[in-house]
Specification:
The protein has about 150 residues and is mostly helical. The protein is built from six helices and no strands. The model has no long low-confidence stretch (mean pLDDT about 95).
């Protein structure tokens, strides 16, 4: 039997791929419309696109980058929790909360992007990550751990 915490891990990975597709589906046509030729770009960095593409297009790219940052800690802590046999029950629920908040953060950032609500979603997901980390530490450092 597998650990329930692996389900939200897979969902967040799938969501990240959805954001990748959404980013490409909006960014590539915007680049073409702006006269940017991928074949001629040399040594550019992602922030260069902020100068030449509409901000609404860049919001998807910024969110995709965000999904490569803090969620990497989520994946790692979920693996620790799964390996310690504590990935069911409350830890699975907290992981689902984290994923739901990150998806809401993505949709908000990619569409409306008002920072005040985006920050609330980020902060709430960070609290869920802190809780998972504390639970992972308790499982790993517990005197009962083998």
């Amino acid at each position: 039997m597998h650990s329930e915490i692996l389900k939200p891990v897979v969902v967040l990975i799938a969501w990240t791929l959805v954001m990748l597709i959404w980013m490409m589906a909006t960014r590539l046509p915007a680049m073409k419309a702006s006269g940017i030729d991928l074949g001629k770009l040399v040594g550019s960095k992602p922030s260069d696109a902020d100068q030449g593409l509409p901000r609404e297009v860049q919001w998807k790219a910024h969110n995709y980058n965000h999904l490569m940052e803090q969620p990497t800690l989520f994946y790692a802590v979920c693996m620790v929790i799964a390996l310690t046999g504590t990935g069911n029950g409350v830890n699975a629920w907290i992981a689902w909360a984290y994923v739901g908040l990150r998806i809401a953060h993505s949709v908000w950032q990619a569409t409306v992007n008002k920072v005040s609500l985006r920050f609330v979603l980020f902060f709430a997901s960070s609290l869920a990550l802190v809780a998972l980390t504390l639970h992972a530490a308790m499982a790993v450092f517990s005197s009962h751990a083998g």
